[in-house]
Specification:
Elements: E1 2-9, H1 18-28, E2 36-41, E3 47-53, E4 67-68, E5 74-82, H2 85-94, H3 105-115, E6 125-133, E7 138-143, E8 152-156, E9 159-163, H4 166-169, H5 181-190, E10 203-205, E11 210-214, E12 223-224, H6 244-262, E13 269-272, H7 277-288, E14 293-300, H8 311-320, E15 325-330, H9 332-345, H10 354-365, E16 370-372, H11 377-381, H12 386-397, H13 404-421, H14 429-432, H15 436-444, H16 458-468, H17 470-478, H18 489-519, E17 524-526, H19 532-542, H20 552-555, H21 563-566, H22 577-581, H23 588-602, H24 610-616
Parallel strand pairs: 13-14, 13-16, 14-15, 16-17
Antiparallel strand pairs: 1-3, 1-9, 2-3, 4-5, 5-6, 6-7, 7-11, 8-9, 8-10, 11-12
Length: 617
């Protein structure tokens, strides 16, 4: 895990001081890689790379970056981990390629030399990297299919910049920092900024599963090479399990392999353990492998000895599997002591991530650089209420699609009254509830789009909501899953909800929060349940009549989880942030969202927008 950045001088470039620019970019990424830092500039002063290293695999200085190929043609800066790098290395060695290091960075470098962009379909891991080809004078950028690792880019002063975080690019004076309507509206609708947008017009996120090239003459558009949702139906009927026993064995083997691959490290590994099934399964499979891992659990003093306190159950799970365990409670003084740093490290605004920030802090305090998380299990195995609620909503309200003006009229007439007694979402049931995209908006949305002119500039809202095209995009995402070979109607509905949860909530909030919150403490968070190889292995199971669901996934373990975990109602990971932040706890996530927005955008912002002015007043 690292921080990467770079700048490419184009033919329209203004004068550039490489040393000053790369130092600013690198300094903004310091906590991502405290173990080593490096800069490199081409002899022709065309391109410069900066790198911050968190040493996890091949911790020797020989694997520091930027790293060059032996012939000097290729140079790489890389953030992430390639879990199948040993297998790839073996194949490359058979092709006559030699290695000077034992890590995964040089494997990436040699893979690109051998296969070019076709290398991407062979990688198993989480990654964002840039490779410079001195011969063709091209910069190649790529990001993993799930978007586990971030990568942002911008143009300014005629130059092209990229970095692991938005805040690094904010150090470049020439970048266009005018408000990006889709980013601002997206945050208040979803509680996070949907990719490829940021709050700033001149900064974009490289979309998940895409690559792009940049030369002195111009920048290519991102090109898709892999889509997790595209894997949902890429299997033959002969790949579907023929019995429940077969399905259980295949499920166990796939999960065990993924956890084993994600444990590869030259430094100690921890597991973030809650009282839930997902982290419990990861813990159990780590114990099966016989590796030395320590489990860590975070508790909140305000929730101590309540049903939402996960520490006691987590401790018993660790004891059940014979693993060392450590837990700590966080109280309001501790939260307030960290509040400013938490907001500073947030990078893009989000209403979540506080729990991940503190459990990563705990991991750092215990001396860990690597931790496994159960993130992704709910999306993969149907752990959210949305898997029940969305199909019921869509089928119940589908007739309203034929008369869309009725739903809008109902909302206009009732919203003021409904909002005084309950969630404003109820006013939009008939307007949005009859489509998969609209139903998902009602389930996950923070604010409804029609509420936003009350807190943001109305023109900004109109432009942003139009550019996001959220409902149309979500409907388009689920449409190809209407018929999956071998799947019943109920299983198809399950896959549709899974696609929405993976592509929106998991990708733009949970995974992004895991990155910034872990990196705030120089901790690499690995997610073995968010893995393309695992998804491909489970695709025929998920569409079959033996589709694994919670708590079914726990039953495939050699040593099942304790009964109190299996039968514990899902509660989510509760953090008492709103109780700590103000005297009126009932103000909830909406108040927290505006607080985060002010902190990240309006307070000391490099640009003042109408949206910022309204919220700051």
């Amino acid at each position: 895990m690292c921080g990467i950045a770079g700048v490419l001088v184009t033919r329209k470039s203004e004068r550039l001081d490489f040393s000053e620019t790369l130092t600013r970019l690198s300094s903004a990424l310091a906590t991502r890689g405290p173990d080593a830092s490096g800069q490199w500039v081409t002899g022709t002063q065309i391109l410069g790379f900066a790198h911050r290293r968190l040493s996890i695999i091949d911790v020797d200085a020989r694997s520091d970056q930027p790293m060059h190929s032996t012939d000097g043609r290729y140079t790489i800066v890389f953030n992430g981990e390639i879990y199948n790098y040993q297998e790839l290395r073996s194949d490359l060695e058979k092709k006559g390629r030699g290695f000077r290091t034992t890590g995964d960075t040089e494997v990436l470098l040699q893979m690109y030399a051998e296969y070019g962009e076709d290398m991407l379909t062979r990688l198993r891991g989480m990654y964002a990297f840039g490779i410079w080809d001195e011969l063709s004078q091209e910069l190649f950028l790529a990001r993993d299919p799930f978007g586990i690792k971030p990568l942002y880019y911008a143009e300014g002063g005629g130059n092209f910049y990229f970095a692991s975080q938005v805040k690094a690019l904010l150090t470049v004076p020439e970048v266009d920092l005018r408000e990006e309507p889709a980013g601002h509206v997206g945050f208040f609708v979803w509680g996070s900024v949907p990719e490829p947008y940021t709050l700033y017009r001149g900064i974009r996120c490289l979309p998940s599963g895409t690559w792009m090239r940049a030369t002195r003459e111009g920048i290519s558009k991102p090109r898709l090479f892999a889509s997790p949702v595209g894997e949902f139906s890429k299997f033959g009927l002969d790949e579907m399990p023929q019995s429940e026993t077969e399905a259980d064995v295949r499920l166990h083997d796939a999960l065990r392999e993924s956890v084993r691959m994600h444990e590869i490290s030259d430094v100690p590994v921890a597991v973030f353990l809650s009282a839930g099934i997902d982290s419990g399964v990861v813990t159990a499979l780590a114990a099966e492998a016989g590796n030395e891992v320590e489990t860590l659990t975070l508790g909140f003093d305000l929730l101590r000895d309540t049903a939402e306190d996960e520490t006691q159950i987590a401790s018993r799970v660790a004891q059940h599997y014979g693993l060392p365990h450590y837990s700590r409670y966080i109280d309001r003084p501790a939260f307030m002591a960290h509040r400013e740093r938490l907001l500073e490290k947030m990078d893009q605004p989000t209403i979540d991530g506080v729990n991940t920030y503190f459990i990563s802090w705990l991991a750092h305090e215990r001396g860990f650089k690597v931790a496994l998380s159960g993130l992704g299990g709910d999306e993969l195995f149907g752990g959210y209420p949305s898997f029940r609620q969305l199909p019921f909503m869509v089928w119940s309200l589908r007739p309203t699609n034929a008369v869309p003006f009725v739903g809008r009229a109902w909302r206009i007439m009732t919203s003021a009254v409904i909002s005084r007694f309950t969630s404003p979402k109820y006013a939009s049931l008939f307007e949005y509830g009859g489509t998969w995209g609209g139903a998902y908006l009602l389930r996950r949305g923070l604010f409804m789009p029609w509420e936003l002119p009350q807190i943001l500039d109305p023109e900004l809202v109109r432009t942003g909501w139009r550019d996001l095209a959220s409902i149309e995009s979500m409907n388009g995402l689920t449409r190809p899953l209407a018929k999956v070979a071998g799947a019943t109607a109920a299983q198809t509905e399950f896959l549709r909800v899974s696609a929405l949860e993976m592509s929106y909530y998991m990708r733009t909030q949970l995974l992004r929060d895991a990155d910034w919150a872990g990196m705030a403490h120089s901790v690499e968070i690995r997610v073995p349940l968010v893995d393309m190889t695992l998804l491909r292995q489970l695709a025929p199971l998920r569409a079959s009549r033996f589709s694994p669901r919670k708590p079914k996934i726990a039953e495939c373990l050699r040593k099942p989880l304790p009964a109190e975990v299996l039968h514990r109602p899902k509660s989510g990971f509760v953090t008492p942030v709103r109780d700590w932040m103000q005297d009126s706890p009932d103000r909830g996530l909406r108040h927290w969202a505006t607080h985060v927005y002010r902190a990240l955008y309006t307070r000391g912002a490099p640009v003042r927008s109408k949206a910022a002015a309204m919220l700051a007043s």
